[in-house]
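Exam revision sheet. Question 4 asks you to relate a sequence to its structure. Input first:
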Amino acid sequence: MLDSFSRAVVTADAKTAAIGGADLNALKGFIAEGNKRLDAVNAIASNASCAVSDAVSGMICENQGLIQAGGNCYPNRRMAACLRDAEIVLRYVTYALLAGDASVLDDRCLNGLKETYAALGVPTTSTIRAVQIMKAASLAHINDTNTEANGGKRFNQMGSVKGDCSALTSEAASYFDRVISALS
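Answer key, C-alpha cells:
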C-alpha cells in the first residue's frame, strides 16, 4: 500500500530525481486539505453500518428474488455474507480515501474479486447496484448534504469542515467507480 507521500518518493526514485515541482505542490495540497480528508473518512466510517444496510436493502428491494429460496441472499448466512462483503468494500474505500491512493483498494479488496464472485455464483449486477447506493450515501455524507427529511429518525449531520469538498467528493467517487469497474 502506498500513500501519497510514498507514491511521490517511488515516482521520484524511478526518475532518479528529487521530489519537486508538480509532485511537491500535490503533496502540499494533500496536507492543506488534511482536515477535510479526515472529516470525509469520518463521515463515511461513522455512517458505515447505515450505508451498508441501506445499500443491501435497496438492492433487495429492486430484486426480490435475492431473498427467495435459492436466491443469493437466502438463507440468513448468505445475507450476512452479503452485508459483510459490502462493509469490507466500504472500509477499503475509506482506506484509499485516507491514503489518497487506490493501491490498498486494488491490492487487498479488488484483486480477484470478480473471479471469486463468479466462482461463488454471486450476481455482480446486484453487487454493483449495492455499491452504487453506498457511493450515493457516502458522497452525501462527505458533502454534508443529508437532510432530516431524507434521514428520518436516523438523521445524522456530521458538521464537517465547511468549504469546497468537490475534489474529495470526486476522489471518493473514483474509488467507488473503481469497485464497479472491477466487478463489471
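Marking note for examiners. The chain has two domains: 1-32, 34-183.
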